[in-house]
Amino acid sequence: MERTETQMKILEVGKKEFLEKGFKDASLNKIVAEAGFTKGAFYGYYPDKAALFEDIVGEAAKGLLEQFKAAQAAHFDLVSEEKTKDSLKLSTEYLRVFVEYMYAHFDAFKLILCRAEGTRYANFLEELVELEVECSEEYYALLRKRGKLSGKMTKQLHHMITSAYFTAVCETIVHDMPKEEAVRYVEELAKFFNSGWEGLLRLE
Fold it and tell me: What is the pTM of this model?
């Protein structure tokens, strides 16, 4: 949907206010005043502050979730293609895609990861971890059934490692790391965690 000039101004000022103060402490009055419009004009576009936050970050968040689901499906494709030994390699390839995507929508993910308290995105990272663990547990069970995986770990340990991995990757956004540095950082992280996964899972 094409946005009006008024709406674009509200989005611009709203994003600035959310980045500076976070959702909870952001002032709707200040957003409206700085945008140069009345509250009536604001309510013509958004019913509340949460709806404005959603409009700023929602599309980026949805896009990342779709990429996550595509990554999971690609791993299951490896089973039918008899390429399950490439699982960790494929995970790293998708990790690069995720980082590229987050940096292409840097402000949105800065808001999601650091300024979302009080919104439905406050637990976004944990939701990604849960999705990853649930899908991976199903994938590992299939590999084990086919004799392609001999290692075992508890679901609790799986969750802890995945949470640590995802948190570490997102530190690039949290600490405003330049993209080139972030890419190098994530490559090293992938090597570190893949060695651990290989030791635990023992893919065959």
Answer: 0.91
